[in-house]
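Good morning,

Attaching, inline, the C-alpha cells for the sequence recovery test we're adding to the shared suite. The designed sequence is right after.
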C-alpha cells in the first residue's frame, strides 16, 4: 500500500450518465446485522456503518455517504471506514466517483459470486474474500462474500451474505486505537484475520461430520452416500475460498518493502498467512478423506449387494430342489393313478376286463412304473 497523503486529492468529476449520488437516509444499524438472502426489501438500508477516524479514534459517525465524504474532506489526516451490505448501484457509483474506484472493481462488487482475489488499481487495493460459517442445526457450511476497497485514506467493505460479522471487527479495532492509527491497511488486516479465524469452527464442524459419516458407513446407513456427496460439494466450495487466499497473502507480504508496510502489520499478516495455509491443508485433507470414504462406502455397498444376490441365489437353489422333489413324487403318484383311471372306466369291451390275472397284472404294472420313475429321479438327484 502506498504512503498516505497529507491531504486528500480533489475527487475527480463524475462521469455523466454513469455515476449517481446516493440519497439521504437514517442512521443505519450496527455493522454485521443479519439480512435474509432473498430479494432486497424496499426499506433495506445498505449503509450498515460509516465512520471517520483520526489517530485511531472515531471522530464522526455520518448518517449518509454524502456526510461521510464531507467530513472526510474536513479531516486531512482522517480515514473513512464505510460498511455496506448489498448496496445499490447508485451507492457504489457514488463511492466510485468520490474515491476514484476502478469501474471493473465496482462491477465485480455489484455482481458478487466472484472468486477470491487481490487486484491493485493505482493506489487502491481491491480484495475479494469468501467467508464461511458452520450451521449446527442443518450441519451445513454457509458461505458469504466480502469485497474490500482499500485506499490511502479509506476502507470500504461490501458484504454479500451473513458472514463475516464485521461489527466485532470494527469494535476490536476501535478498542485498539494504536493499531487502527496505522491506517486502512490495519483495518484490512483485521478483516482478513476475522475471515480466516471464522474458518476454524467450520473445520471443527466438518471434522465432526466426517467422523459421524465414517460410523454411518460401517453401520450400513443407506442415506450416508447422499451426505458424503453433499459434504464433498461443500468442501469444493471451501477449497475455492481458502486456496486462493494463500497466494493473496503471500502477494501482500511480497509488497511489504515496496509499500512501506508497518512492521507490526507485517507480523500480523504473516500470522494470518500461517493460519490460512493450515486451513487450506486441512480442507485438502477433508476432500481426500471424503473421496476415500466414498470409495469404501461403494465397496461395502457392493459387498452387501453381492451377499444379498448370493442369498437370493441360494434361496432359489433350495426352492428349485424342493420343486424337483415335489415334481418327482407327483410323477410317481401319477402313473398308478393313470392305470387305475383307465381300468375304472367300466366299458364292457375293454381288453383283459374279465381276465383272471388282470388285477394282479395292473398292480404289478403300477409298481413297476413307480419303481422305474423312482430310480430315474434318484439317479438325477431329484430325490
Amino acid at each position: 500500500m502506498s504512503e498516505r497523503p497529507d491531504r486528500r486529492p480533489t475527487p475527480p468529476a463524475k462521469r455523466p450518465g454513469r455515476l449517481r449520488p446516493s440519497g439521504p437516509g437514517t442512521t443505519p444499524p450496527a455493522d454485521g446485522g443479519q439480512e435474509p438472502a432473498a430479494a432486497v426489501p424496499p426499506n433495506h438500508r445498505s449503509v450498515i456503518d460509516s465512520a471517520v477516524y483520526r489517530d485511531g479514534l472515531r471522530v464522526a459517525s455520518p448518517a449518509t455517504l454524502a456526510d461521510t465524504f464531507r467530513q472526510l474532506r474536513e479531516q486531512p489526516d482522517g480515514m473513512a471506514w464505510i460498511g455496506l451490505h448489498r448496496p445499490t448501484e447508485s451507492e457504489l457509483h457514488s463511492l466510485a466517483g468520490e474515491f476514484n474506484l476502478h469501474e471493473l472493481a465496482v462491477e465485480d462488487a455489484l455482481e458478487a459470486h466472484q472468486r477470491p482475489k487481490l487486484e491493485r488499481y493505482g493506489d487502491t487495493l481491491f480484495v475479494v474474500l469468501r467467508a464461511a460459517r458452520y450451521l449446527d442445526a442443518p450441519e451445513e457450511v454457509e458461505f458469504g462474500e466480502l469485497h474490500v476497497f482499500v485506499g490511502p485514506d479509506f476502507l470500504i467493505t461490501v458484504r454479500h451474505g451473513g458472514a463475516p460479522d464485521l461489527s466485532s471487527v470494527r469494535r476490536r479495532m476501535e478498542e485498539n486505537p494504536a493499531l487502527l492509527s496505522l491506517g486502512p491497511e490495519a483495518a484490512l488486516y483485521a478483516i482478513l484475520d476475522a475471515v480466516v479465524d471464522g474458518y476454524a469452527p467450520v473445520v471443527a464442524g466438518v471434522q465432526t461430520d466426517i467422523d459421524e459419516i465414517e460410523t454411518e458407513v460401517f453401520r450400513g446407513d443407506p442415506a450416508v452416500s447422499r451426505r458424503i456427496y453433499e459434504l464433498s460439494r461443500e468442501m469444493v466450495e471451501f477449497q475455492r475460498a481458502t486456496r486462493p487466499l494463500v497466494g493473496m497473502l503471500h502477494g501482500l507480504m511480497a509488497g511489504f518493502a515496496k509499500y512501506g508496510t508497518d512492521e507490526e502489520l507485517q507480523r500480523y499478516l504473516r500470522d494470518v498467512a500461517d493460519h490460512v495455509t493450515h486451513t487450506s491443508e486441512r480442507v485438502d485433507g477433508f476432500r481426500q478423506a471424503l473421496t476415500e470414504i466414498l470409495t469404501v462406502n461403494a465397496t461395502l455397498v457392493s459387498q452387501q449387494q453381492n451377499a444379498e444376490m448370493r442369498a437370493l441365489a441360494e434361496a432359489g437353489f433350495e426352492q428349485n430342489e424342493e420343486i424337483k422333489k415335489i415334481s418327482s413324487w407327483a410323477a410317481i403318484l401319477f402313473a398308478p393313478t393313470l392305470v387305475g383311471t383307465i381300468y375304472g372306466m367300466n366299458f364292457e369291451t375293454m381288453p383283459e376286463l374279465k381276465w383272471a390275472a388282470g388285477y394282479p397284472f395292473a398292480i404289478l404294472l403300477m409298481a413297476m412304473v413307480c419303481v422305474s420313475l423312482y430310480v430315474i429321479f434318484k439317479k438325477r438327484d431329484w430325490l
